[in-house]
Design brief:
By secondary structure, the chain is of the alpha+beta class. It has helices spanning 15-25, 49-54, 65-72, 77-90, 105-118, 128-141, 251-259; strands at residues 5-11, 30-34, 39-45, 59-63, 94-95, 97-101, 123-124, 146-154, 157-164, 178-180, 184-193, 195-196, 203-204, 209-212, 214-216, 222-224, 228-244, 267-278, 282-294, 296-298. The radius of gyration is 40 Å and the shape is elongated.
Length: 301
């Protein structure tokens, strides 16, 4: 009974006459059962309900998909159905929320207020041209406060994302030396603040001071200054892996094993095979790598 059926409870003294009448009208019966001497129960398909009404058969209940579909079109369910359908169709065509993402609370509030003034609640979705015009307006209006601005629609939400201009970002000054976290040869110096003590192509050892927070002025006095920057260097690492000789020789597998051990935050400058062969009943692969990485870390105090 997947599609839908009406449950009938019939009272009759002559079931044979009733069955002849049913046959005449070609009404289909299911699960005909005798309850007592004068009462019978059975199911008829909902799609034959016009015959059920014509024969004045008393419907006790209905079951199945057709029944629930028909219920939707009865009052007051039809009102809820229409309302739901309209909501699904019309609501996605409008904007009902504005979301501003940024790091300056005052500017967030200001942008929210200005956008709410420009775009009312349940405003029709913006066209690409309108978004571009909105972008140009706000970018020009807040050019001294913003370095980056992005305006886009997602669903029924208007998103505004920005990064503040560099002069509006709060800078926390730190007065610590930068030291080398490992041995290497300096390849690049990018220092905004501090006294740089190394130069390009200079070899440094782990723990050497790279950027100092002290500097001597023209009067030979030591001044304390903030430090900020990065120093990249060529660093070297040798890796070795092996597998038992009884396993099938597989250079590609050994190479994969070595590469899976490489640091994730470095750039590989060179990769060199130092040796590959059988040592103590094992296939052994030894590789040397030259990395380019930032070796400058703040010294712990």
């Amino acid at each position: 009974m997947n599609l839908g059926y009406d449950y009938i409870l019939l009272e009759t003294d002559n079931i044979l006459t009733f069955l002849k009448t049913i046959k005449k009208y070609q009404l289909t019966l299911f699960q005909l059962k005798q309850i007592d001497s004068t009462h019978y129960s059975f199911y008829v398909p909902i799609y034959q309900r016009h015959l059920t009404y014509k024969l004045h058969l008393p419907i006790q209940k209905s079951i199945g998909i057709f029944h629930y579909l028909l219920c939707i079109f009865h009052f007051p369910q039809i009102l809820f159905t229409i309302s739901f359908a309209c909501t699904l169709f019309f609501l996605p065509q409008y904007l009902y929320h504005i979301e501003v993402k940024g790091t300056l609370p005052t500017l967030n509030q200001q942008l929210n207020q200005e956008l709410s003034h420009e775009i009312s609640f349940l405003h029709p979705k913006l066209t690409y041209k309108q978004i571009n015009q909105l972008y140009d307006t706000f970018k020009q209006k807040h050019k001294n406060q913003l370095d980056y601005l992005n305006i886009y629609q997602k669903g029924s939400i208007l998103h505004v994302e920005y990064t503040p201009a560099s002069h509006n970002q709060e800078t926390v000054l730190k007065y610590q030396d930068y030291i080398a976290k490992k041995d290497g040869v300096i390849s690049k110096i990018d220092v905004q603040q501090g006294n740089v003590l190394v130069k390009i192509n200079q070899y440094v050892k782990k723990g050497d001071i790279l950027i100092s927070h002290q500097i001597e002025d023209t009067s030979k006095k030591i001044k304390i200054i903030p430090t900020l920057g990065s120093i990249e260097a060529y660093t070297y690492q040798t890796l070795e892996v092996s597998i038992p000789k009884k396993q099938k020789e597989n250079f590609a597998y050994l190479l994969f094993e070595i590469r899976s051990q490489l640091p994730k935050d470095v750039k590989i400058d060179k990769e060199k095979i130092l040796s590959y062969g059988i040592i103590d009943e094992k296939y052994v692969l030894k590789m040397q790598y030259v990395f380019i990485e930032n070796i400058a870390i703040r010294e712990e105090t």
